[in-house]
Amino acid sequence: MHRKALQRSYIRPLMQGAIGILSGLSVFGLSQPSFAEDEKRLFEFEEAIKLTPDVDNGKRLYKASCITCHGPEGWGVPGSGYPQIAGQLKNVVIKQLADFRAGNRDNPIMRAFSSRNSLGSAQAIADVAAYVASMPMTPHNEQGFPLRLQEGKVIYDKLCADCHGEQGEGDPKEHVPRIQGQHYSYLSRQFNWIRNGRRRNSDEKMVKQIKNFTPPEQVAVLSYVASLKPKNVAPPGWRNRDFHTFDRSWRPMKIR
Questions:
Q1: How far apart are the first and last CA of the chain?
Q2: What is the largest CA-CA distance in the chain?
Q3: Which residues, in sequence order, are bridge partners of residue 77?
Q4: Residues 6+ apart with CB under 8 A from 189
Q5: ∠ CA 200-201-205, rounded to 5°
Q6: Ramachandran angles phi, psi of 74, nearest 5°
Q7: Of 83, 95, 87, whose CA–CA distance to 175 is shortest?
Q8: Do 149 and 157 touch, CB atoms closer than 8 A?
Q9: Is residue 39 left, alpha or beta, with left meaning phi > 0 and alpha meaning psi from -120 to 50?
Q10: N or C: which end of the chain has fewer CB within 10 A?
Q11: Per residue, what are the HEC states of 134-148?
Q12: pLDDT tens digits, the chain, 256 residues: what are they?
């Protein structure tokens, strides 16, 4: 992607988030990092997109920082607030890690796990993003309301397909996330956070489009998105052999 386009879709919202964080630090009398340090940190993610990832190192980083909440398969926990991240586009994972790190997404847990203590370099970010992208997606994601699927398809085709793709497959060049096959409750929560401004890395066009959705329209379109089946779905009974000893009965605390 050209630098100007990157600044528009990536660097600029990150800088806005950094400015907000710096202002908050000032209010509480805490020390503020220099803008030079923030700029260096932000461009680190531009570098991460260009790097050749080491997937084996990404596996080690995933085990250290991601597996506890997102699970050994990367499928998250339906109804808990933890999304499926398996199969997400590599550049999108890099972009979202950047936004968590800069405070453009409101999640203290992810802020910690995307910090330099967990992911210390652009190479580490590229590595774990590539591993996440390589994982097959669950064939049993949380569904919405099947009676609203046709209505949801009409809304999706009209307002969502241009950016997220006809089947919700996303766009790696524009950092548009894959949303097909995601858990319905997670889609619903993010939809609400985008509309009310809590998710600060949202595309302005999307915010305007969904602002006046009625509750039935929201239910319909998100039910349709959850029903879309990706091509890279895991076969029945599949388990990630990279983490065969992980206790799959354990579940993280529900996000409220």
A1: 37
A2: 54
A3: 82
A4: 81
A5: 100
A6: 75, 20
A7: 95
A8: no
A9: alpha
A10: C
A11: HCCECCCCCCCCHHH
A12: 444 444 444 444 443 444 333 333 333 333 344 455 456 556 777 899 999 999 999 999 999 999 999 999 999 999 988 999 999 999 999 999 988 887 778 788 898 888 888 888 899 999 999 999 999 999 999 999 999 999 999 999 999 999 999 999 999 989 899 999 999 999 999 999 999 888 888 888 898 989 999 999 999 999 999 999 999 999 999 999 999 999 999 888 887 7
Q: Does residue 145 contact residue 190 with C-beta atoms inside 8 Å? A: no
Encoded amino acid at 26, one letter: S
Beta bridge partners of 174: none
Burial of residue 65 (CB within 10 Å: 0-12, 13-18, 19+) is buried
Place of tokens 């991460």: 48
Residues pairing with 176 in the sheet: 171
CATH topology of domain 146-227: Cytochrome Bc1 Complex; Chain D, domain 2 (1.10.760)
How many Cα atoms occupy the beta-carbon half-sphere of 25 within 13 Å? 12
Q: Is-above-0.70 flag for pTM?
A: yes
Architecture of domain 9-17+25-138: Orthogonal Bundle (1.10)
Residue span(s) of the chain under CATH 1.10.760.10 come to 9-17+25-138, 146-227
